[in-house]
Amino acid sequence: MDKILEVKGVYFSYNGEDVLEGISFELYRDEILGIIGPNGSGKSTLLKIITGILKPKAGEVRIYTNRIGYIPQKATSFERNFPATVEEIVSLGRLKTPIYRRLNKEDYRIIDSALERVGMLVYKKKRIGELSGGQQQRVFIARAIAGNPELLVLDEPTTGIDINAQTQFYNLLGELNRDMGITIIIVSHDVSTVASEVKRLAYLDKRLHFIGKPQEFYKKVLWPLEIEELLGKE
After folding, report:
1. I need a surface site. Which of 35, 73, 137, 140 has the fewest CB within 10 A?
2. By the 8 A CB rule, do 48 and 93 touch?
3. Domain spanning 1-67+151-234 has what CATH number?
4. Residue 122's Cα: distance from chain center in Å?
5. In this predicted model, what pLDDT tens digit does every residue of 138-191 receive, in sequence order?
6. pTM of the model
7. Burial of 26 (0-12, 13-18, 19+ CB in 10 A)
8. Residue 83 dihedral angles phi and psi, to the nearest 5°
9. What residue ranges do the domains of the chain occupy?
10. pLDDT digit string, tens, across residues 77-99
């Protein structure tokens, strides 16, 4: 299989306290990897290291593509009157290099195509703050698509959106993976939902306690953890 990412022995600390301890795994092209774990387990920190926002204290990350889309936590927290349209938000996906160039006809064609792909083309002249959380999240997916990513990294993208919007969102990610060959890493706090949608699941709590098929997680990790909790109460 063709690797797109290698994480080798990564450590990271904040104010002298270890947040990540010896994280190692590989990601292959066309995979969808879900990362779960409790609050403060280092999930968001790991994504920031993978995308180059943070540098590890030790270890290394190798990414075999420079086409990366990243959607951080709370990317969709906009005031209603935030002065940017949907089209303007998505256009940022075309302005990475060089950042100050003018958009051309091909850029606008790609922007429209990305918005159509996520079902948001009819909203392109609306202000981003006028959309629901689920709609805003689709706009940010369109922004990532406009940059033609090979790897898409999402940090808890369904926080604050209703269950129907979550289901539609995961269906969209599946389409991007199947139809466009985009490899996806997604952090989620919703174990049952993400486990039903991903090809591999990682359980992170400072250390990587498990990575493998979701059904194996339920057998090897989730059930033993529940049993330990019950035993601890006796």
Report:
1. 73
2. no
3. 3.40.50.300
4. 25
5. 999 999 999 999 999 999 887 777 788 888 888 889 999 999 999 999 998 777
6. 0.85
7. middle
8. -80, 60
9. 1-67+151-234, 78-148
10. 666 667 899 999 999 888 765 55
